[in-house]
Every structure is written in C-alpha cells, then in structure tokens.
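assembly run, all chains below
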Amino acid sequence: MSADAAVKYVTEITPEDESRVAEWINTEEYKEKNFARQALVINPAHTCQPLGAELVAHSFEGTLPFVHGSQGCASYYRSTLNRHFREPAPAVSDAMTEDGAVFGGQNNLHEALENAYALYKPKMIGIFTSCMPEVIGDDLTAFIKNARQKGFIPQDFPVAYANTPSFNGSHIHGYDSMLLSMLQTLTEGKRMEGRCTGKLNLIPGCDFNTGNYREYKRILKEFGIPATVLADISDVFDSPLDGTYRLYPGGTKLEDAADSINGKVTMTLGKFATTRTFSWIKDNYAGEHLSLPTPFGIEKSDAFMMKLAELFGKPVPESLKAERGRAVDAMTDAHQYIHNKKFAVYGDPDYLLGYVSFLLEMGAQPYHILCSKGSKKLEKDIQALLDSSLYGKDAKIYMNKDLWHLRSLVMTDPVDAIIGDTHGKFISRDAKIPLFRFGFPIFDRVNLHRSPLIGYQGVINMVTTICNKFIDITDDTCDDRHFEMMR
Amino acid sequence: MSADAAVKYVTEITPEDESRVAEWINTEEYKEKNFARQALVINPAHTCQPLGAELVAHSFEGTLPFVHGSQGCASYYRSTLNRHFREPAPAVSDAMTEDGAVFGGQNNLHEALENAYALYKPKMIGIFTSCMPEVIGDDLTAFIKNARQKGFIPQDFPVAYANTPSFNGSHIHGYDSMLLSMLQTLTEGKRMEGRCTGKLNLIPGCDFNTGNYREYKRILKEFGIPATVLADISDVFDSPLDGTYRLYPGGTKLEDAADSINGKVTMTLGKFATTRTFSWIKDNYAGEHLSLPTPFGIEKSDAFMMKLAELFGKPVPESLKAERGRAVDAMTDAHQYIHNKKFAVYGDPDYLLGYVSFLLEMGAQPYHILCSKGSKKLEKDIQALLDSSLYGKDAKIYMNKDLWHLRSLVMTDPVDAIIGDTHGKFISRDAKIPLFRFGFPIFDRVNLHRSPLIGYQGVINMVTTICNKFIDITDDTCDDRHFEMMR
Amino acid sequence: MSSTARKIEGITKESTQEMIDKALEAYPEKGRKKRAPHLAPNDPGASSACVKSNRKTVPGVMSARGCAYAGAKGVVWGPIRDMVHVSHGPVGCGWYSWGTRRNMMTGITGVSNFAMQFTSDFQEKDIVYGGDKKLMQLLSETKELFPLAKGISVLSECPVGLIGDDINNVARQAVKELDLPVIPCNCEGFRGVSQSLGHHISNDTIRDHIIGTREFAEPETPYDIALIGEYNIGGDAWSVKPMLEEIGLNVKAVWTGDGQLEHIAATHKVKLNLIHCYRSMNYMCKVMEEKYGIPWLEINFFGPSKIRESLRKIAALFDDTIKENVEKVIAKYDPMMQAVIDEYRPRLDGKKVMLYVGGLRPRHTVSAYEELGMDVVGSGYEFAHGDDYERTSAEMPEATVIYDDVSEYELEEFVHKLRPDLVGSGIKEKYLLQKMGIPFRQMHSWDYSGPYEGYKGFEVFARDIDMAVNSPTWKFVKSPF
Amino acid sequence: MSSTARKIEGITKESTQEMIDKALEAYPEKGRKKRAPHLAPNDPGASSACVKSNRKTVPGVMSARGCAYAGAKGVVWGPIRDMVHVSHGPVGCGWYSWGTRRNMMTGITGVSNFAMQFTSDFQEKDIVYGGDKKLMQLLSETKELFPLAKGISVLSECPVGLIGDDINNVARQAVKELDLPVIPCNCEGFRGVSQSLGHHISNDTIRDHIIGTREFAEPETPYDIALIGEYNIGGDAWSVKPMLEEIGLNVKAVWTGDGQLEHIAATHKVKLNLIHCYRSMNYMCKVMEEKYGIPWLEINFFGPSKIRESLRKIAALFDDTIKENVEKVIAKYDPMMQAVIDEYRPRLDGKKVMLYVGGLRPRHTVSAYEELGMDVVGSGYEFAHGDDYERTSAEMPEATVIYDDVSEYELEEFVHKLRPDLVGSGIKEKYLLQKMGIPFRQMHSWDYSGPYEGYKGFEVFARDIDMAVNSPTWKFVKSPF
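ok done. output:
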C-alpha cells in the first residue's frame, strides 16, 4: 500500500441500492444490456465435453472411465453424476500436474493404467481428455500403444479413447466422440461378411434419464425386437441397494457391442446427439442405418413405433397401441390445465425439440426457447416445428444464449412455467413460476431421472407432472371462495 | 306468519364473529366439543356399499352394473367413478319410484332387465341394491328367477346380485358382497374334481387405483405365474382413447372367473376388503387359500413375493429382486427428506395399514391415524404395526371418526402432511400442509390413479411424491439465503 | 341469429326422424313405445312441446337423471351458504353430493359457510328404530359446533320416508329448543321422476318456512330485485350481480347461489324477481307473484345477444335511469364482446354442437354458441317439463333433434350420426363422448371453469369452447398404425 | 473423552497394519510403494505425523481429490458474496462448482451477491489466440451488468496458464479502467497436488491485492476479531458468529463464508484471528501475525466439549468481562447440549464411525461423535499436510487407521474390515458406501443440512447422525429372498 493513499473505509451495499438494482435487472433496459454481452457468459446451460464422455464410458459392461488430465476434473465429473443420479460414479484419472505441461502426460497415463487395471479389474477402459493434454497436444494413440508394449495393460485389453477438449462443443459432443471410440474399439475386426445379428442397435444419445433407457427396452420387448442398446446406463446408474457395492453394475455387454457392427438395423435417436458416431456407423456397420428424433410426444413416438414396425416387419403390438390410446386419453383429459400456457424451455438440442413437440401437441405455447449450445440447424428444426402449429406462432428461439439471458426474457415477457434442469431454479423463484426438471442435471429432487419422458409413458408422465402442478397452483393461490373440491 | 310477530330484520354475520369462530374451531376446547359428538357425522371418509358393488360389477368382462333402486343413486355412483378415473362408467338402474314402496320393485327390475339386455348387450349383469329395496325388503332371488321365467332375460344368462344396504358398512363391504355374488354366480357348477388350473386367483380387494392392478399383473408376469386377477379394473377404467367408445373394455374374463374355482391358489390381499368372499372361497374353492396384507412398503411387498415364490415353487425373479433393491435405494437416498415427519393418515382399512407400514419403514411418524369406518380388529392391527417401531410410539388411532374430527386433531396437534383423498384438501389448506392423494376419490388431480402404490414400484412412487413435495416446500418457503442449488 | 327458420344443412325433419327411428330399433317393444314420444325433430313453429317429458325414467335405459334429493340438496338448498344442510339418512347421498356441484360460496368453511357433508349416517338400528331421536340430538350438536349457522335444513333420504320418521315434528321442536330456523324437507330420492320434484318440494318448503320471516334492514327502493334460479356455478352470480348493479338495480337476494338464508327470507319485499333457471324455481316466482304481487321476468345472460335482450326487457320495467344505464352498459360491453367473437369465431365457425343438460342450459346457451358461429344440432334436458320444451323450440334450428331424458344408447347413436364437433353435457357423458373422439365440455358445471354468464362469462365461455374444440390433442385420437 | 489412550475394542496397531497391508496387496509394486506411507495406525503418543501427505496423487487409484482451481473457486473465493468470481477458461470448471458447495450467502443473487456461474467460456480460438482481450471485455461487461459488485476475482483454469495468457496484466489494466478491485488468481487446476495449493495461492492473492486496502469505519475496540477459515457451510458462520458476539466479541470479518470483500480488506485492524479451518487459511494468519502483529488461535466449535474448550482458550486472551461472559454462555448452553446428548446418545452409543473429508473435519468432529457415544475408528484427509496429521493424532483413538488421500479401493477395503455404522465423507463416496448398506453423511456439505458448528449446530448434527444411523430404511438392505 502506498503511504500516501488516503484511508478507504469499509462501505456496505445500501438497502436502497440493492432494491434499485433488484428492480433494474428485471427491466427491458437491463435485458438489452444483457443481450449486448459478447464476452461474458453467465449461467450457461451446458458443460464441457468430458462429462458426456464419462457417461458413455460408464455405460458399457465392466468399463472404467479414465480421465487423462487433472484429478480435479475427474472429481467434478464424478460429483455431477453422483448428485444427479444419487448413485456411485467410479472413475479414475491419471492425475496430471505441472510436470505434465513440460513432459507430457505419458508417464501419468501409464502408471494410471497399471494401477487402475490392477485395482479395479475392468474389462475395458474408456479414456477421455480434459483441458491440459488437449492444450499440450498429448498423443493418446502413441501413449496407449506404448502402454501395451511396456505391459501396463495386456496387449489385447480394449482401451477406447477420445479427444474431448473442453473448449469446444458441450457434453453432448464429448458423448458422441467417446461413443464413437467405444464402438470403433469394440467392433474392430468384428465385421463379418454375411453375418446379421437380426438385432436392432439402438443409440439413445446423450440422455441422463435412466427411466428412458428402461422404457426403450420395454418397448422393444413388447415388440419382440431383439436389440442392443448402445451405451445403456439404466442399470449402471440405477442399481439396487442390497448391501453389495458393484463397481460395474450393468452396461451394454461388450460382446453385444462388438457384434453390433453386424446388426440388422442401427438407429440413433436425436439428430444432434450422436452425429459423428452415426456418420461413422453409416460407413462401417452392416444393415440399415437411420436417425430418428428422440421420441418425445405422440407424433415422434408414433414415428418411432412405425419405423420399428416397418424395419422388423412386425405390427406395432396391441399393448403399445393401447398405451398410445391411454396416453392420448391422458392428454385430452388434462388438456384444459395446460392449454395456451406459455413456457420457457431450455436444454440440449434433442430434448429441446422434444419439449417443443410435446407442448405444441398439448396446445401449450413453447414461448422462450433457448439453447446455450445451439446451432443454425437446430434453430431451423425448432422453427419448423413451431410453424406447424398455431401454438408456436408467438415463440422466439434463442441460440447460444445462457440462463442469465433467459432470466431477462422471463422477467420482461412472463411465462407460466419453465422446463429445464435444476439450474433454472433461481429464475423460477424470481419469476414465481414452476420449474419442471426434465433435463440434466437434477441436483435438488429425488428419483426424477427414474421417470421416463420418452414414448407414450413419457407423455403420461409429463402430462401428470405439469398439469397437476398447475392445479396445485390454482389450489394454492386461489381465494377461499374459489377453492373447490373438484378441478 | 303470526300477525303479532315483531318484524325481524336481515342480519349479517359480522367479521368479528367470523374471526372469533374461525379461531375457536382451531382450539382444544372446540376439539373436545367436536369429539363429544354422538349423532352428527361431518365429512365422513367413506361412502355407502353400492359404490363398491358397482366397482366390482364393472370389473368383469362384458358385465353391466345394475342398480336396483332409484336412478338418482346410479347417477351418484357413476359420477363418482367418472370423476375419479376420468373415464366412462356405464351402469343402469331400474329407476324405482314411489310406487315401488307400495308394490315392490319387481316390475321395475323386469322392465329394466329387458331393456338393458337389449340395448347394452351385456354378457352378464351385476345387480346391487340401494336403500329403497333394502328398506322395503325386495326379494331379489325371486325377482330374478321370475325374470328368467318371463323371458326378460334368457334362462342361462348370468346375473349376479347382492344386497348392499347403504345403512350398513361402507363401500368396501358392498365390494365384498358383490364380488362374492359374482364369483358364486360364475363358478356355479364349475368345480371339477381333480381339475387344477395351475393358476393363481388374485383378489386385490376394493382398490380404485388402476395402476395397482397393472402392477400386480406385471409382477405375476415377471414371476411367470399364470393368474386370474378377479375384479380387474385396469383396462375398464384406464381404456385407450382411439375414437371408439367401448361399453365394456377389459375386465376379468368370465371364463377365467368361472374356472377360478379350480385354481391352484386363491389369494386375497387386504385383511379387511374381502372377508366374506374369502370365507366363502375357503369353503368352496379348490387349491390353497390365503389372505395377505395389501403390499404397501417393503416388508409387505416382500411377504407377497415370498409367498408367491413359495406357493408356485419359483424363486423371486432376479428382475424383481433388482426392483426391490432399487426401491430400497430410493428409500435410503431420500430418507432424510421424510425422516421423523409427522403424518395424519386416513382411508380404508387396508390402505391405512399400508400407509402406516410405509411411513414407519421410512422413519416417518404416522401420527393421527383415522378410519371413518373402522373396527377394533383394525385398531389392533394398526397398533401392532405401531408397536413394532420407534416411529410409531407417539401415534394415536381414531376409529369411526370423521374428517371434521381429523381437522381438530391437525389444528390442535400439528403434523407435516396428510395422506388421504381429495376430501382432505380443506384440512390441508387450513393447516397449510400438503395432502398426498393416495386414496379414493381423487377429484382434483389427473392420472394419480394410474400410478401404482403397491409393490416396490409403489414404494418408489410414494417416496418420490412425498419427498419431492417436502423439498418443494423447503424451496418455496425458505428465505433467500437458504435457497440452494442442491437439496 | 334470428330465432326463426334457422336450418342446418343436411338436417331435415325426415333425416332426424329417421335417425330417431333407427335409434329406437334396438329397444324391446315396450321400451320403444315409452321412449318414442321423448324424441322428435324440432318444430319451431309449433305451439306446444315437440316431445313428452317429466315422465318416469324407463327402467334399464341408462339415464343421466338424478333424484328428488339431488334436486333439493344439490340444486336448491346446497348453495345457501350460511345454513347447515343435513343429509338425513345413510352416508352415501351426502357424500356423493359433497363439493360436486361448483355452486361457489363466500365465507369461511365451517365458520360462516358450510360447504361440507353433514349426515346422520343411518345404521341398521336407525332403520329399525327410527331416526327422529338421533336427528334431534344431531341438530343440537350442529348448533353448538357451528354457532354462526343461520339455520339448518334437514334433507330426507329414501329410508326416512319409508320407515315413517316424522322429521317435520322434530324440526318444529328443534326450532323452539334451538331458537334457530330448522327446515324439514321431505325430498326422499324415490319421490317423483327426477331431480325436478326435489326442486318443487324445496320451493314449497321455502314458501312454508322461510319466505316472509325477515325484512331487509335498509329502506326499500324501487330498484330492489332478486335473482332467482341462479346457483353461482363457477361464479356465475358473481358475474351477473355486478352487471345488474351497474344498470342501477339492487340485488337484494340470490336464490340460491352463494345465498343467505335471511336475504331469501326477506325476498317478498323486492320489486321484481328475475328468474334464470325457470325449471327449478318458477314455482316460487309464481308464489311470490300471487302472494306478494311481485312480478317476474325470465332472463338469459348467456352471450351478448341474450344479455342485450334481457337487459332491455328488464329496463322496460323500470324508469328512464335504468333504461339509460342499460344502454350505456350495452354500449360499453358490446365492443368487448365483439372482440371476443372476432378472436374465436374464425376458429369455431360452422362447428356443430349437441347439448344435453338440465335446467335452462339446453336452450339458454344456444344463442351463445351461435354467436361464435356454431350450430346447435341437438338439444335436450334431463328433467324438463313441457314448458321447458315449449321455450326451447324457438331457440333451436328447424328439425334438429330434441331429446328428453335421453338414454346413453340414444345419445351415442345420435352422435354417431351427427358427428358434432362438440358435445356439452355432464360428467357421465363426458368420457364416453371423448372416447369417441368428440370434444366435450361439461355444461352442468362449466367443466371446472366459469363463469359463463354475463359479459365476463362470455369471454370465458368462448375461450373454453375454442380450447375444447381446437385442442391439438384431438389430432392424435386416430392412431396412424 | 480424554484425548489420550482411548482404545477401541478389537483395534490394535497390529490389526490395523494387517488391514492396511491387505489393502495394499492388490497394488502393483510401484503403486504400493507410493501408497504405503499414506496409511498407518494412529499413534497418539508420536511427535510427528504418522502418515505422509501432500504428495502427488498416485495416478489411476481413484482419488477423491480436487484441484487448485477447486481450492480457489470452491473454497476461498466462492464464498465472498459481494464479488463476481469469473471462471476464466472453458465452461466446465465453473459449471461444476456452481452452487455445489453450500457456502451460504446473504443478499440478492445477481444484485448484491453473485452465487452464479461467470465464465469466459473459452473456445478453440481463445486457446489459439489467447483470451486476454476477451477477459478485458468480460470484466467491463461484468461491471456494467452488476454495478453493486465490490470487486471481481479472475480464477484461471488450466488452459490459461498453459497458453501463456497474462491475466495479471489484464487485471491491473481493469482496476484502472473500471475503478474496481479486479484480482487475478493463477489457480490453474494442474498446479500442485490437490485443492490445497489453490488455497495457498488464493491466500497469497488476498495478501497481495486485498488485505490492508480498507479500514473499518467504526472505532476500534479491544474485542475486534476475525473468523478465519470459516466458510459458512450450511450456515455454520451464522451459528458461530452470534455465539462469539454473545461472549462480547465483535466479529469484524469472516474469511470467507458469507464474506464481504471490504471487511476482508480491513482485517489487518482486528485484535485476534480465530482460525477454524487451519489447512486452508493458516497462511494468512501467519502473514497477518508477521505483518500486523495479530495473534491467532485455532478453535474448534464442533460439539459442546470443544466449544467449551475453545471459548475458554479465547477468554484467556481477553479481559474479565469476556471471561465472565464465556462462563455464562457455557453455563447457559451446557444443559441444553446435555439434553441433546441425553436424547440421542442412547441410540448411538458404541456405534463406529469412519471419516474421510478435507480441511479440518477429520479431526475437529471426532469429539462431537464421541459425545454422542460413538467411536471414530478411522480418519483421513483429501488434501492435508503434515501439520494436519500432527494435530489429528491426539484426537483419534489409539491404533485406529489413518489414511491420506485414500483411494476408493482402500476405503472400501477398510470399510469391509471395520464395518462402521456410519461413514462421513463426500458425495463421491456416499453412494458407494450406501450400496454396501453403510449409513452415510456427507461431511463436506452436511448433506444438505446444517449448521453443524456451534451450539445450534450440535443439535442439528446429533439429529442428523441419529437419522442416518437409525433410519429404518437400512433394515431393508438385505433381501429376505
């Protein structure tokens, strides 16, 4: 401190200033300033690639996720998955530190492979990178080859690896890259001329809802379609509590994944979740390949069912037809509780498309539609959906905006509810409107990831959750004379 | 008006009086007066026998419920079922009027049988009585015999009938009587020496949750146990909307019901729901007979599974074991949101036992336990449950008290939540605590009857609903500085 | 929207009769004979009702009708907010009618209103030994626990009449002992053919026990009126009352929506009775006319045309102040109503509606639909009398089907044939129709919405009808596979 | 609860060493050699730490450790409520640490506190061309949108240091241009071996940029103190501060729970620093002692014994007024605490606990468990140094296992062997342990509850421990089939 500086005293933020600014941040003026931001990102609704990559690495039988990078990165990813699923998320890192910047990360990687292989006895390891090795340019291909040569892991031990730089894309892109690598690794040399497993390979994409995976499997079972769900987290992140800790509960069987290259049909769900994987599959997998929208709402679920029926030459089973009818029944019975209600929705691209579909089908208005890692292509797809319905006409789409932008939108142009994830709860509170936690992550409610959102059962679940909440609000906020037995 | 009467002017209830009494009804003093009532019943949590009887009559294939009595009774029953299920509830009455009091109801019954048979082409008719014929003493046996003789219905057309006086018991007793009659009618002459269907006859009892029936069937399917669910409402009151109205969707197949007398095992669930039926079955049905508690909570679900395993010599399937583990996982993950919370619970006997079991298993306190049509036997069973747990030690049981009593209890000795049905919503509002609508009827929320409460999935559903609501409350009521991302 | 000679394309007297005949084919002969007179094509020119009505329900046909108790408890008595209404007899009747009519109420439940279920919960022994003693005790318990209740109605259920209890005597005693109006109403469900007799019995009871027992404390004015047959379903009275006050009238009592016993008791002092639900309360209007010389006028507050017409009819009975007010009110609200029509009519134009309700709705709401561009192609009542059908003819287009106490079988047949875009009926019909893929609104209860009456109500009505008819959910009824 | 010679039945030096050896068997030789010195039986009599610590994490062993950024953002900076903390670099680090530490805050989010996620969201091009320019713009946008922010911290993520950005220079410029404290903190995640270096770097940054830049406006008193290393997890500071005020002290600043930049900046004017989390902030206490002559005292506010002990240690440094106050406070709260013990101890007596946390908890909470009758049979730290382990020996019973940076493999082995009735650790361990049927509490974050410190906290702590250990849900872990 320079001796001649006048003493500065501690000051407090005055209540007046606090009130003034608290009002100001809800104004149009503030909104404009807020939207003028170019460098600062506040409350983004997406995270970095490795998280998605880790999800994939967890989702194969006996596979140990392995972060090539700082152990702090691994801690962050694991905690996030722990909190969302309320389940273990075992993963290792090779704990790179400063010396890695100088010497590269090979030593760390080798030592870590040796230890992890010995301690956690995986059937496979899925390596993905965090920032450090990406910036310094580690050569994973060479490192792993060397590891085999030096005996840190057996020659034939399967190791998938993906570059998942955090300064590029979002968790869904990391998911895509890791999945691609897993499939490349597992299917290498497995393509057999003339062989057809007769099975469907289903790739749900970067989805953190275990209920959805179970629901896909249930639907396929109803159809009687033999299937391999690739990157199946349903048992991985929803395992029984019975006194035994299992390091690797569930996941797609490696054998099945390997043989998936000889599948009859390979279907990815979600146009945006697994584009690289899909493109590689098209060039390398036997059988038919196709990509369908994630089946949110009736129309997209219908498309899914009909495509399954067509591909496998089986009619949609009566049980699913009846389920469809029950879902439509639930929709008509409850439409009046949601009709014309305005929603702010945000999330990953394929989920976002799903929300918009579902809301339009119910006669609700998706109104502020925001993706914090979107694209022109996504915007076009959403707009096309909106254009198909009267209830989409007032909607606006915001690409690559964040939740602080969304706050401005909701405060200046109110809506009745938000669909998003836990991070939206501050907007929900400030705007005094409900938040439906359909997305990822959910850190503050239990079991929601166990409740499917896809297919007809998903429709019923969303109808139930949303409509009953609106009725709750009516009951909670009406005056005595409007408090009624029936709703 | 007598001429000498002084003019009396219109007076208004003063705001002062209103406030005074509004406070008074929340006091201990009022509670005492309230509990001293002997003749007046206010807001009973049960209704009359015929409603339960109608539920049974709906629940068999092609069966038309038929109210012998006033058409107004039929309208009431039907509306109640319509509102709860948001589904059609087709039923006829023979529209007795004053002349019935003089001449008896035979003419009405005959004409009604003729018309109903012609118009609604049922495979069976289930007749039950409302007050009038019960008071005047109509002889249904003779009337129906005469109807056949006179050709209003074919000789061999199955007609079940039950006396279901409204001034006795409650809807669960009407359920029991009608079910007994349905089974007596359908199985008459079907007992075949030496024949065994190899099947389980499952009698869930008076349960208005279609999700529970589907769940029973799913569990039995997982086990691979062939079963006939007797009085199966799952498709009856949860039918698809596909543009075709079906008068008789679903229901227990008459053939299966008839053959149920040759079953391998007949199991009733709920000690209180179907006592007469069970007692008749014991004397008349082949195979084993047993009664288990309605499987709410882990312990009772375990007992159900183990008994099935034992009876059919099959181990509990791995899939259900895993489900159990997931339910326990959900319980432990969420226990802190419900632990030691106090509940007021009311409902039908078997549901009530279920609530108490579940709450004790979660470490919550069932605190005010009320049955508006209970018995000493029920009280004893509940007390035994309470005695088994630390969390039951402060509980009090109230038999044959009504919801106005419950209001006094909740206002003078507060709890954190109520489990009941829609009728509890006024107490919930007055006490500013949540109401969990697990019982019947639910007139003011959608789809709740589609969500099972029994078995392991039921545990997960109850945990989810209750714990997330308590978290909602934390989020909604905490001050800003306690509003957190994670819970 | 003229009320004469409206025709619907494709609907002729012959086509309608053919449809009716076809529906009747399935009946056994006796049933067919009984039902036939209750179904007919509308003839707006005829001087009398085109269908028979107020007859016993044909046994076994699946009627939507209720009983006398329902008419007394649910319709007439239940809405009086400051009385305790005791369902005297077994537990069920009161339980079913508890909170299920949407007659909304001011006050604090259990303190100053009593929208609860009070019952004597008859048991076997009450049937055997009679319930009079129990009733007496119950009444005194009621007074003690609900000190602000202005009175108690005792509504008999079936057994009470059948076992020969004398509730009138008990009530007489109770009035003395409790110093409180206790009104016995012998509305056992077996009486009469529908809820209609329950209305009548209740009206008579009001006449015998209530009317004239109070007077208004404030001075009389020429503008004092009462609103009769208005039950405040979904808050209708709260829409209509301010409108009448806006034209300068004092609404001294509402019968019985959000009603108050003592105001009803003083109604003999008003200058005019406006009756909305003619069916359930014309009796009392006639009584008050005969006994107290109070004129009465039937009004219809559904949709701007009928509101306009009704307000002018009212104005005609008053001085220039009221007349001017009425024109001002019409001038103020008509543009708003036009805006509503402009918004919704394009989406509803040409859509067909069928109605089957009670009371006044099957005729009173016809014009409101028409203002939205919709055609009502069938209408009928649960419990109407001839005078209701007389009043209906002119409101309905020519040759459209009129059905009295329609059976579910007939309704289904008519709907199959006419394929309406909307059916307005009750909860028992709702899900049946929806399963057929037909949009539906509960028109007894405004389907948990409302109000539908008055200016405020029309906006809600139009919004709800649009929502029902145009909900995208209907697109999904037919599975593509 | 004496801190010497406590023994646990069945636990000997030999049994513990055997357990450790067995756990190490699975390791490859190199790994085993590295891990072995981090695991040892406790020796309360020894003069030095029984385990090695603050070493690089062994690659591939599944450590729970975080990084320097986590230590800076999550621990030290994040809780300062009136500053914007910018996670400078890619989107993830800030996202993961957003709202996940439970350092609670006063104020309005986005207005007067900034518990949000601010990031420069580095893209490929920022890596290639550097992010300094973006940072400068971001800082000015921050100032414009959050005018009440008292300052901005810039917390570097890995790429920033690797690509050679100079955030210190940008910050210097920004201070001038924005007239606002902008504090650069080079806490890249690759630095050091755990979050510990992040604490240290942050402390140094506070030393270099903040301390001494303000003075308190009100006159000094002899009772002015600061609370250091108190992060207000679950509201701990809100339990402790009033307690200290009750004994007559003025808590002028809290480092950094619910902290305020300018109060922290004036801390050099206090008379005493009380330090709770020694690990993360001893550096600053030493700096303030050296530079400003401020004495410091380590205290422990978990459980009544340690509170009593700590309050008396504090009192010893003050005059009689404070001494008397302390005795009064102890006399007031001790009976309440005894009541808590009386309620819960019978249900917890003899239960075994294992701890694995960070900062101070692995030693500070031991006594609190013991007061509830529980034995802590194992303890360890994620990121401790030798001085932490020195301080731990005396707190733990003899020969119990001490583990540093325990791997999940080792922890699982120890738990299998010791079968504790409760494990207190972090979210990453929670569900693993629960799957084993072991009750668990997150002891980093009080498992969404709290406070656990101070008198108020002990009550919550005892309740929570009872709930975890005795929840009937554990009964159902083992399937009967």
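The first helix of chain C runs from residue 13 to 25.

The two ends of chain C are 43 Å apart (CA to CA).

not gonna interpret more than that til we talk
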